C-alpha cells in the first residue's frame, strides 16, 4: 500500500519543492510506507501515473473543491481510496497563526487570503477557518480572495495583517504579498501539515 500525495501542480519551482518537502516529512513519519507525489494538473507525474492498486490518495488541497471531488478521484479510478482534503482542519488554523507571528504579527486585525472558488461549499469552508482563526487570535478576521470577490485588496485596511490560506508559494502568494507589510507565508512544510497528511492516511 502506498501513499499518494496529490497536489494541484504549479510551474513555480518553489511550489513544487514545498510539495516534495512535505512528502519527505511524511516519509520520515511513515518509514515503512512508500510515499509518492502526483499532480492533478500542470506538472508530471500525474496522480493517475503514480497510483497503484490499494493506494491511499491524500489530496494536498485546502478545500474540498472540484479537484478533490472530481478530478483526483477520476485519475485514481478504482485503484485506491481518496481521503478528504487537508482543509478546513482546525490544526491548520494554528499554522496560519504561526506564519503570521513569523511575519511580525502583533495583534492587528487579519484578512485571511484564500485562492477563491465559485463553489458555495468551498467558500463556507474558508469562512469557517476565518472564524476559528478569529477565536484563536482574539481579533477580527475577514476573508479575501485572490481570484473572486471580495478580493484581498478590497478587504485590507490600513494597519491590518494578511494571513495566507494557501499551501505553497507561487503566483497567488506573490499577489497576496502586495497587500501589506505583515503577510503570513503559505502553510508550506510546517510540521502540522505533515502530521495531518499522516492522520488522513492512517484513518483511510
Automatic annotation (TrEMBL):
Pfam families: CbiX. InterPro entries: CbiX-like, Sirohydro_Cobaltochel/CbiX. GO terms for molecular function: lyase activity; metal ion binding. Gene3D superfamilies: 3.40.50.1400. The keyword Lyase applies. Keywords: Lyase, Metal-binding. PANTHER family: FERROCHELATASE CHE1 (PTHR33542:SF5), SIROHYDROCHLORIN FERROCHELATASE, CHLOROPLASTIC (PTHR33542). This is Sirohydrochlorin ferrochelatase. It comes from Actinophytocola xinjiangensis.
Amino acid at each position: 500500500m502506498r501513499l499518494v500525495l496529490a497536489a494541484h501542480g504549479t510551474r513555480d519551482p518553489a511550489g513544487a519543492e514545498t510539495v516534495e518537502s512535505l512528502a519527505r516529512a511524511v516519509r520520515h513519519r511513515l518509514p515503512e510506507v512508500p510515499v509518492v507525489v502526483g499532480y492533478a494538473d500542470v506538472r508530471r507525474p500525474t496522480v493517475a501515473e503514480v497510483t497503484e492498486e490499494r493506494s491511499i490518495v491524500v489530496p494536498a488541497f485546502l478545500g474540498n473543491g472540484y479537484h478533490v471531488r472530481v478530478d483526483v478521484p477520476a485519475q485514481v479510478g478504482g485503484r485506491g481510496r481518496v481521503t478528504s482534503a487537508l482543509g478546513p482542519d482546525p490544526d491548520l488554523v494554528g499554522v496560519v497563526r504561526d506564519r503570521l507571528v513569523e511575519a511580525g504579527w502583533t495583534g492587528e486585525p487579519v484578512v485571511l487570503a484564500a485562492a477563491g472558488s465559485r463553489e458555495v461549499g468551498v467558500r463556507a469552508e474558508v469562512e469557517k477557518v476565518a472564524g476559528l482563526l478569529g477565536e484563536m487570535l482574539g481579533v477580527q478576521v475577514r476573508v479575501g480572495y485572490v481570484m473572486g470577490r471580495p478580493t484581498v485588496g478590497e478587504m485590507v485596511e490600513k494597519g491590518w495583517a494578511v494571513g495566507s490560506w494557501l499551501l505553497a508559494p507561487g503566483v497567488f502568494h506573490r499577489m497576496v504579498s502586495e497587500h501589506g507589510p505583515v503577510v503570513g507565508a503559505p502553510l508550506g512544510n510546517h510540521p502540522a501539515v505533515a502530521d495531518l497528511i499522516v492522520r488522513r492516511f492512517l484513518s483511510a
